[in-house]
Specification:
Shape: globular
Structural class: alpha+beta
Distance between the termini: 51 Å
Largest sheet: 7 strands, mixed
Strand content: 35-45%
Number of helices: 10
Number of domains: 2
Number of strands: 22
Helix content: 10-25%
Length: 473
Amino acid sequence: MDSQLQDIAEKIIKHASEKKVQYCDVRAEEHFRKSAHIENGEIEFVKTEQHYGVGVRILYNGMWGFCSISSPDTFDGMIEILENTIKSVTHYSKNKKNSVNLAPVPASKARIDFPVHEKPTIDEMLEIAQDCDRAIWEYSDIIRSSVSPAYEITSKYFVNSEGSSILQNYTDVVFHMAATTHGRGITQSVDITEGGRGGIERILEDDAVYHSARIIADKASSLPYTKPVKEEKTTIVMRPNFASLLVHEILGHPSEADRVLGNEMAWAGGAWWSGKIGEKIGSEHLNVFDDPTIKNSLGWYYFDDEGVKAEKTTLVKNGILENHMQSRETAEIFNTAPTGNMRATNYNFMPLIRMACTCIEAGDYDIDEIIKDVKDGYLVSNMKVPSIDMMRYNWSISCQYAEKIKDGNITDLHRDVIVSGTAPEFFNSIDACSFDFLVSPITNCGKGDPMQPLVMGNGSPTIRGKATIKSVL
């Protein structure tokens, strides 16, 4: 990071402290992103995005104030903006009914350079993307392919009035691929996202990206010749690449303490388990955690955007709701400790409570054992589209394909499948979790108003439970 930007951040803290504010923190950030899109073998575009700036939070008389500045040149040019922000929060705090208080955390000083074993370049990523595109077209009935490679280099410096100064430098590499086929008058698509925090090794390890290109093309080619399923409540075995979206929607989001408090109700809903900490909400096989320390995931970091040290947080233990993801503000309300989950898309936004890498914990079952014990049911794979009610209670998630399980054997492939249920009923029906475990990269989680898209990870083993399955054509 440019030392001048760090110097500006530190001068902001000094200026705010001289104005006797209750608390102040600054995030100085630099972002560099390269992306491209290949469709049907042709490079549609190559795009470069670069920006830098600072975001400033000020707490005065129990009320937040915020301002952000893009491309600042000197501290002197920002004084007027800071003064106006301080005046504004000072004025409006007089009529505030509820005061913000922050749970105490120790000051931290650190510099973390996340490992990048093979530095990404757009030329090499385009070459890999074109190889993946060619692999997709080797399969029958393909009518469209798309491959979108991208990498982003981020440098983030956090400093606050309590003495913290933390610099984190990291790189994210992501590939999104889709294959579309047409046969018998039916069009089907299968897609997948690969990647993580690190260099090109995040997509090339074990030839993951090439393997995924062939998998989506193969499944897409088969789907037009398959049948939909009949509607029934039955045993559902969820692959990790499907269960990760379920984790995201009905375990992760309702575990964000601001939703539990109802602060997100007007935009993105609340949580049906509000007030139920210490109560049973699932079977003994359900163990859920959020962990920013899972290396190589898109949710990997060492300190959040409040300077709180990242650590694993147990959310559900043996079916008992134990905790929520907490900010310093909500931790004070819940009389607990902050969990290190405050993050913002970039310096232009106030941080919100966000998932880092929320997961269902692995169990002790073998996948084949889980399937073998199913007399009649379905194996569902690959997340698609969620539909969740405001309280994250009723849920419906489509999958890209499902396979019939009959007498412990996988038989027919099916298309246009939706799985649905209610959160407590499904959680209590879980009777097996495998010891395999997969973290999926999530690149487009949205929260807040204005909307903040953010990357993260969601993970799961293969899980088995009861839900309703049907096809919508």
